[in-house]
């Protein structure tokens, strides 16, 4: 029998725990925890993401600052906004919603965020520390996947883990986290040969490809744990990267889409903000 990993419930639990921690933080340090969100332009999906992030931030008792810049904002204007937040002692975390409009240099702007306010864990300093297994802020989605595995008491050490996808925000940090937990990790990508054979050896299979129902039943070992990061909209309906209906008949654990990894991303964003604020407060005591 397969067990469905309920990311909605687990993310709710994390947010409730955080609410308690944020309240204790305020009592102890006499200050708010503040997350600043910068949105440039009017991408409808980004607007929804930003709205949800702000709502969740406030729900756990943190303060949110939102900066909405015009679609045609110049690089200088966006830089000034991020630089001001970087200098502001009251701001604990900065999130620049991606994608930025095409005329802006994403890397240049993200690199203005100091590593100790990088709630997304995208900066080279944080990624490098993850590679060195040092304490750092980890990208929210893979961090959320790890949290799902841990909260379900799924053993990682010594297991064969296969990650399909090598993006900077999901695949690569996911592989590093699993390696840090002592799994034997294989990273697959668009040029991988014999993908099916490799996937079939996985005790833990993480799909982060961006193609609906890409992972089929014949690619999965019986009893495997399958984590579906994909979010694919087809004809107005949401699908993961895994052919859930058929694959779930073989797995021991599987995440649904929606309601699996998705809700964890925001929960881990809040967790990252809290951890950065705590680190700063402890350093300043
Ligand atoms: P991406 O496009 O940056 O990376 C996709 C990866 O898949 C690449 O590394 C590519 O090499 C690999 N790939 C493509 N075709 C392949 C093939 N035929 N065989 C093997 N590998 C192949 O995407 P991303 O940003 O990593 O996102 C992946 C998916 O996860 C998307 O569906 C995205 O929407 C979703 N996502 C979800 C969340 C969340 O909160 N749940 C967060 C980020 C991304």
Distance between the termini: 51 Å
> Which strand order do you get reading across the main beta sheet?
1-11-8-7-5-6
Strand content: 15-25%
Number of strands: 11
In DSSP terms (H or I, runs of 4 or more residues), the helix count works out at 10
In this entry the ligands are:
nicotinamide-adenine-dinucleotide
Pattern of helices and strands: EHEHEHEHHHEHEHEEEEHEH
Question: What's the overall geometry?
Answer: globular
Based on secondary structure, the structural category is: alpha/beta
Mean pLDDT: 97
**Fraction of helical residues:** 40-55%
Summarize the structure.
This protein is 42% helix and 16% strand.
Keywords:
alpha/beta, binds nicotinamide-adenine-dinucleotide, globular, 285 residues, single chain, 11 strands
Explain what you see.
This protein has 285 residues and is of the alpha/beta class. The chain has ten helices and eleven strands. The strands form three sheets. Strands 1-11-8-7-5-6 form a six-stranded parallel β-sheet. It is globular. It starts with a strand and ends with a helix. The site of nicotinamide-adenine-dinucleotide (NAD) has 23 residues, from helix 10. Nicotinamide-adenine-dinucleotide (NAD) binds next to helix 10.
Topology diagram in text:
Layout: E1 3-4, H1 7-29, E2 34-40, H2 44-59, E3 63-69, H3 75-87, E4 93-96, H4 106-110, H5 124-131, H6 140-151, E5 160-164, H7 171-180, E6 184-188, H8 195-200, E7 204-207, E8 225-228, E9 232-234, E10 237-239, H9 244-247, E11 253-254, H10 262-283
Parallel strand pairs: 1-11, 2-3, 2-4, 5-6, 5-7, 7-8, 8-11
Antiparallel strand pairs: 9-10
Helix pairs in contact: 1-10, 2-10, 6-7, 6-10
Residues 141, 164-167, 169-171, 188-190, 192, 195, 208-210, 229-232, 261-262, 265 line the site of nicotinamide-adenine-dinucleotide.
